[in-house]
Amino acid sequence: MSTNGRTRPDQPGVASSFAELSHNAIELAELQAQLFSLDVKETSQSAGISIALIVGSVCMLLGSVPVVLIAIAQLLVEKLAWSQSAGYGVAALIGILASAGIGAAAYTRFSSGMAAMKRSREELNRNIAWLKSNLRSRTQAGAVAQD
């Protein structure tokens, strides 16, 4: 094989290249696991507040809201001379709207807490893309070296 006076650069051995790539992939997996752990911790703290809001909403609905709604219904009947069914219907509607508002606040808070997991997904996607790119470039370099 003629090299026309040029010296061929030392090609790293397949074993050392694979060992280096394996080492990098393992380090990357460890870092990814640490990031995921931090994101889960952050998300669970945020989700805990959301769950407390939901429990508070349900307790309020089951405890004091019926009494307040009955009072509103009686007020509508006595002060506006509405029928009892109309007064109680409007009071029920008020209760449903209040519960929906509290539930929407809890959902919004929960959704923002789940956004922290986005960081782990994005980092994992970047790491997988890096690994694929690195494997592809090493495969192509090996094919060129064999030519």
**Structural class of the secondary elements?**
mainly alpha
- Per DSSP, what share of the residues sits in E-state strands of 2 or more residues? under 5%
Biggest sheet details:
none
What is the ordering of alpha helices and beta strands?
HHHH
* Number of contiguous helices: 4
The end-to-end span amounts to: 11 Å
Number of strands: 0
Helix content: over 70%
Rg computed from alpha carbons, rounded to a whole number of angstroms: 32 Å
- Stretches where pLDDT is under 50 for at least 5 consecutive residues are none
Mean pLDDT: 80
Q: Estimate the global geometry from the Cα principal axes.
A: rod-shaped
Task: Write a structural description.
This protein is an all-alpha fold and 147 residues long. The termini are close together.
Question: Which features does this protein show?
Answer:
147 residues; mainly alpha
Q: Secondary structure elements and their pairing?
A:
Elements: H1 14-63, H2 65-80, H3 84-114, H4 116-146
Helix pairs in contact: 1-3, 1-4, 2-3
Q: What's a quick, concise take on this entry?
A:
With 147 residues, this protein is mainly alpha-helical. It has helices at 14-63, 65-80, 84-114, 116-146.
